[in-house]
Write a structure and sequence with these properties.
The chain has 4 helices and 4 strands; from the N terminus they run βαβαβαβα. By secondary structure, the chain is an alpha/beta fold. About 20% of the residues are buried.
């Protein structure tokens, strides 16, 4: 089954735009929550994770709706994979692209620094 998770931080905000996107993406059930992303124990997210079965997919509109910190995100991913379920975000491909670009830049910088001395002695 494809589940959605929609979260906003305050009562003054609405989850409806997220719910529409998740429904359009094929989610059969959408869990809605009004809770600060800084809280690691969110009742609806916990309920959703408890319901996941092998082959299910958890979908969010953006990664920041699921977690506030990298550690929280990795813990949530661990809980999803422990259930043998999947994960999807509309911005997931953008996230992967950013990581790839970051890795390429780090590799390039490392090689430039490693070869800096030999480059400067040529001139």
């Amino acid at each position: 089954m494809k589940y959605g998770y929609a979260r906003v931080s305050t009562d003054g905000q609405s989850v409806e735009a997220q719910v529409r996107q998740l429904t359009k993406a094929g989610c059969k059930k959408v869990f809605r929550e009004v809770s600060s992303g800084a809280k690691t124990d969110r009742a609806q997210l916990r309920r959703l994770l408890d319901q996941l079965a092998p082959g299910d997919v958890l979908t969010v509109t953006r990664l920041d709706r699921l977690a506030r910190s990298t550690r929280d995100l990795l813990n949530t991913f661990a809980a999803i994979t422990a259930k043998k379920a999947g994960f999807r975000s509309h911005l997931w491909t953008e996230f992967i692209l950013h990581i790839t670009v970051f890795m390429i830049r780090a590799y390039f910088a490392k090689n430039v620094m490693a070869n800096w001395e030999s480059m400067t002695t040529m001139y």
